[in-house]
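Write out the bound-state structure for adenosine-3',5'-cyclic-monophosphate.
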Amino acid sequence: MDDAAPDKKSRRRAKPASLLKLLLSRTARQATYNLFDNGTTRPLGLALQKAIIALILITVAAAVLQSVPEIAADLRWPFLATEIVVVFCFTLEYVLRVWSAVEDPPYRDLTPWHARLKYVVTPGALIDLLAIAPFYLAWLGAIDVRVLLTLRLLRFLKLTRYSPGMRSLVEAIHSERKSLLTCLMFLVGVALIGADFMHWAERDAQPDKFGTIPEALYWAVITLATVGYGDVVPITVAGKVIASVTAVLGLFMLSLPIGILASSFAQVIQRRDFVVTWSMVARVPLFNTLSAAEILEIMRNLNSMSVEAGEVIVRKGDLAQSMYFIASGAVTVEIPHQPVQLGEGHFFGEMALLKRTKRSATVRAVTRTKLLVLDSADLHNLMEQKPEIGNAIEDVARQRAAGQDDNLAGMRQRDDDEDPSQIG
Ligand code: CMP
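---
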């Protein structure tokens, strides 16, 4: 008995320690990493992402409104409370991201602290730090509160992490940085030459505006940018000729980087769509046997689409044109008395295509769902080229049809049992 007492005590004492261990375990770290980095494929991650985006928008709106003295005075406490809540959430996000960065595949071979150190200097982590650091610095008195108000607007940059479009734009700028730098050098060169010529042509007529090259440079930049405020204009003939040439050169100089950026942006988006569709196809078990070349082939025929929770994807009795593969999310097949839920990797909508009949049931999204859509003609092509895939789809369609027949028979039986005309 006596021996048992300390045992019990130590077990009781061990509890908080083991709870902490569980919280800090590898699984928890992996789950945290997945939640933040692959969040969009899971409802909880998606909700978290939406909450962070909402906080970013709230804090940016608050920063803008707080610059209006009357509003800032009236809503002093709500603004302060919002700031504290936002900084608390962003700090928690930052700490969790740094802690779970160890699970990032490129860092997996490094020691945990080396991996975290590498992570904190990435642009994303620096932006996250920039979103919270001014608050703590102002709190410690290291920076002025007015500077904090201005720096808060930088939290807008956090959106880059959550907007694939913004990420693509950054990627496009990064991949074309050398050509863009060349364009910038040309622009600076033309501005300098234009300013120099203009200074020479106008310095006597307007010494207050073109008396020095830096003053003329202001005119050159505004003209090259095709803004032309009109506050500084040449009055001599030579000056007007130089201004005309500079303005036309400005058009060329600006259209060049815009063109480069536009085509690079389009390429990045195309690449991203390709990778997204590829990973969606790879998630469907039916396509597991396909080689890379065959996946590529099938990708040409597949379209991707997203549906929101509750949205009807196919309606009973409708004509059928395509079948669907679930890349992420879940749908429910509304079969009377026994609806069936289908998840990631499953497919539906094949029965009407194979039997060339109308839809046998309504299918509705349960959560936000990403689908790959295969048209009727492409399905028949695929079945011809890959008979094993065709057979697998036909088998499933047969089982489902048998299930529907059983269900119908059961319903009829139930109706017969309940029909008052049958009683007595
Ligand atoms: P289709 O008839 O084209 O449209 C409705 C779809 O729901 C159907 O194809 C099947 O893909 C799917 N479906 C019908 N019955 C079942 C079932 N018992 N289990 C799973 N899916 C089904």
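---
The chain has a mean pLDDT of 87.
Strands lie at 302-307, 312-314, 322-328, 331-334, 340-342, 347-348, 362-365, 369-375.
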